[in-house]
Amino acid sequence: MGTWQVERRKRTRHLIELSGLVVKAGIVDLTNDDRSIIFGAMIWMAEKLQSEQGEQGEQARNLWTERGKQAFKD
Predict the structure, then answer these.
(1) Whole-model pTM?
(2) Residue ranges under compositional bias (Basic and acidic residues) (predicted)?
């Protein structure tokens, strides 16, 4: 198997795992699988993390990290 095939499989697995998080969080059901809503929310989240007010972005990152860790434990 070529190097490009191995890398492609790694990338595919990574994307599948990320999409699983969207489903596991209940976002698909809550939005009736409306991809515009899902994408818009993800853009909002990215903007929040890139916030010019570094403190706001850092607070969001810390809050979301803790909530995610707790959800994985549960």
Answers:
(1) 0.78
(2) 64-74
Could you state, in order of their start, the residue ranges of all structural domains in the chain? 1-30, 33-74
- Dihedral sign, Cα of residue 31, residue 33, residue 37, residue 42: positive
Both tokens assigned to 65: 């990290």
Phi/psi of residue 47, nearest 5 degrees = -65, -40
List, for residues 42-68, the tens digit of each pLDDT value.
999 988 888 766 778 888 889 999 999
Residue type, 1: M
- Work out the percent of the chain whose per-residue pLDDT is above 70: 97
Q: Which residue has the tokens 């549960």?
A: 74
- Residue recorded with tokens 């989240």: 45
Which pair of structure tokens corresponds to residue 43?
């853009």
